[in-house]
Amino acid sequence: MYKIAFNDFFTYSFSLDSVIFGFRNGEINVLLIKRALEPFKNMWAIPGDLVYPDEDLSIAAERILFELTKLNNVELHQAQTFGHPKRHPQGRVITSAYFALVRIEEFHVEASSWAEEVKWVPFHEIPELAFDHNLILNSTFELLKKKLTYEPICFDLLPKRFTLNEMQQLYEYAFGVEMDKANFRKKIKPIPLISHDEKQINVKHRPAKLFSFNSESYEKLTSTESYQFKM
Amino acid sequence: MYKIAFNDFFTYSFSLDSVIFGFRNGEINVLLIKRALEPFKNMWAIPGDLVYPDEDLSIAAERILFELTKLNNVELHQAQTFGHPKRHPQGRVITSAYFALVRIEEFHVEASSWAEEVKWVPFHEIPELAFDHNLILNSTFELLKKKLTYEPICFDLLPKRFTLNEMQQLYEYAFGVEMDKANFRKKIKPIPLISHDEKQINVKHRPAKLFSFNSESYEKLTSTESYQFKM
DNA sequence: TTAGTTATTGTATAAATAACAATATTTATT
DNA sequence: AATAAATATTGTTATTTATACAATAACTAA
User: Fold this and answer.
1) How far is the CA of B160 from the C1' of D9 (A)?
2) In chain B, which residue ranges form alpha helices assigned H by DSSP?
3) In chain B, at which end, N or C, are there fewer CB atoms within 10 A of the end residue's CB?
């Protein structure tokens, strides 16, 4: 049993890596950056960097994401922490994954700092990434799938006003299954949606009605009744 | 925007704290230790300590748990990570919570190293703990509750052979609700259980039949069919 | 006007949920 | 041995939810 003085432990670094999910053309996308720095220079990665010694984690996650991609005002949630001693070639860097769900069309992204490029990539077309980022991404996607079943987070990915078919496509893409249209609509009956008088435009078939999530009504339901979102 | 050299970031420390859950007398218990060291000397805490610079996280979690409580061979799972800059009075220490589910009666626990005492405490009777351990414990209990609904982990807490009533009590304690006996039995029908010819002994009423979880059958179900554990 | 395409609603059946009643098996007591 | 007390176990019924598939409606493009 070896003994180590307290200060010997202060030889770590700590980073945060953010998985930003978006939804476009029926596909769940992930925001990637191209690294302009060693290690893994020119490889794609999820945006992440080291935390300042006095910085709270969620603050740091927002700062880092903004520095690399100019993405701002997104709600970041913590996922898993990865700490294999050799995961970073330059030293012991433990990292926590964060994730956010955004409406792609509402946000501007732009490569900045040491990010040479940024782009949205459909989850099922993700290339080999720097560090253990494929591992991080896969584990975070699993978390997303779980949350999709018991929290109304699909509405953070969908446009403010969406068609029921878009909502169905999101679930179909996430879980890799096909669903029956009629039954899907029955299943989501308990979810408080606002049905608008508006319809799709510029589609070359019968346009679908637009809906939006009624978050006020959802808050009431969850606080008063024993309502539980379920998909 | 201030600039920091890479090495300035290596001023962290990293710890792991383990929440060990057990089930006894109809109550979910948590294993606590009494700290023999500053800071928070003499306060109760969940077992945790610093990670060695070259140590993988899950290995470290096992080592630390054993050093403090002599608890061995338990399956630890990662929960949330806590990193508030002021959470540790002696420096920047980020910590990841781990948790395990054990059968109290099968394991020997014993205070060791800088743990002065160890004891099992029912979750609803937890005192004020050192550091942010109440926060960690509560968030990990929430995670446990979620997992209880979609994974057959209650069987890691229950005795190898248990009565259906004990199983029901576990869920009732976790979720703070009363359930109907008859309906509970119908609800768990899809779960593969082995019904034994054995009964409770030393009870002063009609003894209940003993069951055990059929994990082989469960593995088959999850791999072949589209079976999903659900409670 | 009509074919093509997708949106939306309906119907019938099976399965799961929930509330409550009834019966069975054991221990403790007379 | 008979009976009360306590808990285990199974049944019954009505209601809701899930599943498969059919039918109808609304729009575009030709």
Assistant:
1) 22
2) 57-69, 133-150, 154-157, 164-175, 181-187, 215-224
3) N
